[in-house]
Design a protein that fits this description.
mainly alpha; 7 helices; 162 residues
């Protein structure tokens, strides 16, 4: 299984995505995302300034909840936002495609992607290319053994609620 850069970028954004996709606690329905696939006949979605206060709140509420619930994650969340802002549009689109691919993976495929990402994140592009070539030559049994040896540590449990 080859993992493109977009899949690796996706893994950087996973924690934020899960909460951004949750339904808002306010009960208001958010405006559809601008990048959502909509029929060409539909009017374009409004700019932020044209959204109602309820629509803005519905979009922001999940992020606010995550920020308030995870003080230990705030620095990481802020760094991800800064990194996203500095990405060129093409790289953002690759990341979005990777996120969509990840959403459609089975739990086993996600575990594989996490393990591979964890091992390749610090590699140079040349090392990643060599890894992909090696991976493509492995048998399914060799891949399973590699994944067992390189499985990422399970995520730490959330801190107890105060």
């Amino acid at each position: 299984m080859k993992l493109p850069l977009s899949t690796c970028l996706l893994l950087l954004w996973l924690p934020a995505l899960g909460h951004a996709q949750d339904a808002p606690a306010t009960g208001a329905k958010p405006a559809p995302a601008a990048s959502a696939r909509a029929p060409a006949a539909e009017a374009p979605l409004p700019a932020w300034d044209q959204l109602s206060a309820e629509q803005r709140e519905a979009l922001v509420a999940p992020l606010r909840e995550r920020w308030n619930a995870s003080p230990a994650e705030r620095a990481r969340m802020l760094e991800r936002a800064r990194r996203w802002e500095s990405m060129p549009p093409e790289e953002r689109e690759r990341a979005r495609r990777g996120m969509r691919r990840f959403e459609h993976m089975t739990p086993e495929q996600r575990d594989q992607a996490r393990a591979i990402f964890d091992q390749t994140r610090a590699m140079t592009p040349e090392q990643r290319k060599a890894f992909r070539e090696q991976w493509s030559k492995m048998s399914p049994e060799q891949r399973r053994a590699w994944l067992q040896r390189h499985a990422p540590a399970p995520p730490a449990p959330p801190p107890p609620a105060r």
